[in-house]
Write a structure and sequence with these properties.
The complex is a heterodimer of chains A (430) and B (276). Chain A is of the alpha+beta class. Chain A is built from 13 helices and twelve strands. The longest helix of chain A has 25 residues. Chain A is globular. In chain B, α6 links the parallel β11 and β12. Classes of the chains: A alpha+beta (430), B alpha/beta (276). At the A-B interface, β4, β5, β11, β12 and α11 of A face β4, α2, β6 and β13 of B.
């Protein structure tokens, strides 16, 4: 059943995603990046460089909206007007600006917030909606009709994704295509072209460089735009990005042969280098030894101590671009009809794992906290070869119990290094 | 259609096993799917009552009998309450089969000892019938089954069928205090009865499923009888939503019960954290 391609319209290259692993423990599960044969390969990036002026960008957006293309971009929202801002508790925190930034589907009225604050919520909801219909059922006599949710969508553009948010999509691609393909996720991924915007760094909660991402990372993005004088320098990284540019070539100017191109390149380079240095100063860890520490310190008092501070509200999971766990619930809309929905869920609540019998494998909050750290920094690396985190720092910003992932990873790193030192000392003594 | 789209199945029979446990016999409605449908002993499915949701149960019937599939459930929660209200002729949803299976092909020529308690017989019953339908391929078959009381024994007609066979050693027991005046079987806890029966561990495997406390006390008995940890097989249940490794709730440490399980050896269990 899981090996079927019910819609039969998947491109030939999708076959790699449906490979059943049948429980084998594999560190190199095929992700979408691998399947596309270099389409998104980091080794041989398509590095077309172009210039997009601020005016051209506005015209590009207007043109897309006029043509009816969906454009998702960071926009300014009132702190208490946006469900997203409220969900991230931004409006409850003292000292929070009255205006917040969130990703939204542009409607022509929005004020774009490119390069301003970090959106409260990640791009996750545009690919894995907070709740979405999986199917509708309707009873007709003794029979039941099922209507499946669509898995194909009209092309759309994300403009100004944070590189950590774009990278997160590619990280989650792996679990969504583990053994069998989640067509609902893939359908939205396939329909979306993503322009990431090089990030200057938000604040001291950022740590993308410590977990393999970067403020100018192109992972998960089809193009990266970097602010320069008068506009943006555009680096195209995938065929999809190139196709988008080809379709809108009148808005972009090739950098090659453009007067002042070198100066623009230098500005972009400087912007990226400074951002890199700023983020790197926040946190530097040895990811391999952190993972090893987590794998071998299951019952370590440090994890328990960190875990007991957690209130179990699950806000960290909501704002996280890589937390993808979900619930499936039926929502009857009367007698004999309704909608089966998939909703975000969090491993931080007791109900998440509670059996109908009342037994709960993760009864205590510190155990549930340990699960989150384990899943992100040990289990996901073991199963998929990379951490389930891109260092956006949202979990830290939103936590009202003061849990700080930068601090936590640093503490684990210190303990892991101490272990290394102890082992080395023992080696020397021997 | 997404991987979460269930197949429709008609309830063709229902059998009350105990006062709170019922078996549903299901016939898949889609002809193409029904004809291509196959599974292996130990795999599970997600059964849904539209309006109440989905829940995970093993496929309790053997893969050697695919005209219909059976699931046996105990009335404990919201979904099982809704399942309980389903009648013959009604339609429910089914997704599956998912998960790994018992490696029957590796057991050829070996003795098999089945140990089950309460409704834990449901997944074991699938393997028992599968083995009995391929009887020539295996050595001695021993079944030790117990429940809290006589009333709590499930698949009562089949217990009699197994006991009547001369190629099966069958011991049925009830916990002390659970017997009736007419009870002709054993009285005692499953681990104790298993120890007294003392089936040979030589060229043998054990399949065990039941309440956690029964499994906990049976493992040392099997060990004492000489069963190696990798010759003891069990099947785990965890809360699941997707069944296909995506919803993120059935993991025990790095192991996902829906994909790596639900069948594990005692040796594998010993490497896992006690989060199940």
């Amino acid at each position: 059943m899981t090996e079927e391609h019910p819609n039969g319209e998947r491109p030939a290259d999708a076959s790699g995603r449906d490979e059943r692993t049948d429980g084998e423990r594999s560190a190199d599960v095929p992700g979408r990046d691998e399947r596309t044969d270099g389409e998104r390969s980091a080794d041989a990036p398509v590095r077309d460089e172009l210039f997009l002026s601020t005016e051209s960008l506005a015209a590009l957006v207007d043109g897309l909206l006029t043509a009816g293309t969906e454009v998702i971009a960071p926009v300014v929202v009132g702190a208490c007007d946006s469900p997203a801002a409220m969900a991230s508790a931004a409006c409850l925190r003292p000292g929070v600006a009255a205006e917040q930034v969130d990703y939204a589907v542009l409607d022509g009225e929005h004020r774009l917030a490119l390069g301003e604050a970090m959106p409260n919520l990640s791009l996750k909801s545009f690919f894995l909606p907070q709740n979405e219909a999986l199917l509708c059922w309707r009873q007709r006599g003794g029979a039941i009709d099922l209507q499946a949710a669509p898995t194909e969508h009209a092309p759309r553009l994300v403009l100004g994704a944070k590189p950590c948010d774009a990278a997160a999509l590619e990280v989650v691609d792996k679990v969504m295509n583990w053994g069998c393909a989640d067509e609902l996720w893939n359908g939205r991924r396939d329909a979306t072209t993503i322009f990431a915007l090089a990030c200057p760094m938000e604040d001291d909660s950022c740590f993308c460089t410590a977990v393999g991402a970067a403020p100018d990372g192109t992972r998960g993005a089809d193009a990266l735009i970097t602010p320069v004088e008068g506009g943006y320098l555009v680096s195209v990284t995938t065929e999809k990005g190139r196709a988008f540019l080809d379709a809108h070539s009148d808005r972009f100017v090739a950098l090659e042969g453009l007067a002042g191109a070198e100066a623009l390149r230098a500005q972009a380079e400087a912007f990226r280098a400074e951002a890199h240095a700023r983020v790197a100063a926040n946190l530097q860890i040895d990811a391999a030894s952190v993972r090893q520490w987590i794998e071998t310190h299951y019952d370590d008092p440090l994890l328990t101590a960190l875990g007991v501070r957690c209130n179990g509200c699950g806000a960290c999971s909501s704002v996280c671009p890589t937390c993808h766990c979900f619930d499936i619930v039926d929502e009857p809309d009367g007698v004999g009809s309704g909608t089966r929905r998939r909703c975000w869920d969090t491993c931080q609540t007791g109900k998440f794992t509670a059996h109908a019998s009342g037994h709960n494998p993760r009864e205590d909050q510190n155990v549930r906290f340990r699960q989150r750290i384990n899943h992100k920094f040990a289990i996901y690396p073991l199963r998929f070869g990379e951490v389930l985190c891109t260092g956006c720092g949202r979990c830290t910003r939103v936590c009202h119990a003061g849990q700080d992932l930068v601090e936590i990873l640093a503490a684990i790193d210190v303990d892991a290094r101490r272990g290394d030192l102890d082992a080395a000392a023992e080696g020397d003594a021997a | 259609m997404s991987i979460y789209q269930p197949q429709l199945a008609t309830v063709v029979d229902l059998i009350d096993e105990t006062v709170d446990t019922r078996t549903l016999r299901l016939e898949l409605q889609d002809q193409t799917f029904r004809e291509s449908f196959g599974f292996r002993a130990g795999q599970f499915g997600l059964y849904s009552v539209f309006g109440a949701g989905e829940a995970t149960f093993c496929i309790a019937s053997p893969p050697t009998r695919t005209d219909a599939i059976e699931c046996t459930f105990k009335l404990v929660g919201k979904l099982t309450t809704a399942l309980r209200e389903v009648n013959i002729g009604d339609t429910i949803g089914f997704r599956g089969p998912y998960g790994n299976s018992f490696p029957l092909d590796d057991w050829q020529g070996k003795d098999i000892v089945f140990v089950a308690g309460g409704i834990g017989l449901a997944p074991v019953r699938c393997v028992i019938w599968n083995v009995l339908d391929r009887r020539d391929e295996f050595g001695n078959v021993t079944i030790v089954y117990g429940a809290r009381s006589v009333a709590d024994l499930v698949y009562k007609r089949e217990l009699e069928q197994w006991a009547a066979r001369d190629d099966v050693t069958m011991v049925t027991t009830v916990d002390p205090g659970g017997e009736t005046p007419e009870w002709a079987g054993r009285v005692g806890f499953v681990p104790t009865v298993l120890g007294e029966l003392a089936p040979s561990a030589e060229n043998a495997v054990a399949v065990i499923c039941g309440p956690p406390v029964m499994i906990k006390f049976s493992f040392p008995v099997l060990e004492k009888l000489g069963f190696a940890d990798d010759a003891v097989f069990t099947t785990l249940e965890m809360r699941m939503k997707c069944g296909v490794g995506k919803c993120g709730r059935c993991n025990i440490g790095p192991v996902y019960v829906c994909k790596d399980g639900p069948v594990f050896t005692a040796a594998q269990l010993k490497t896992l954290p006690a989060e199940y």
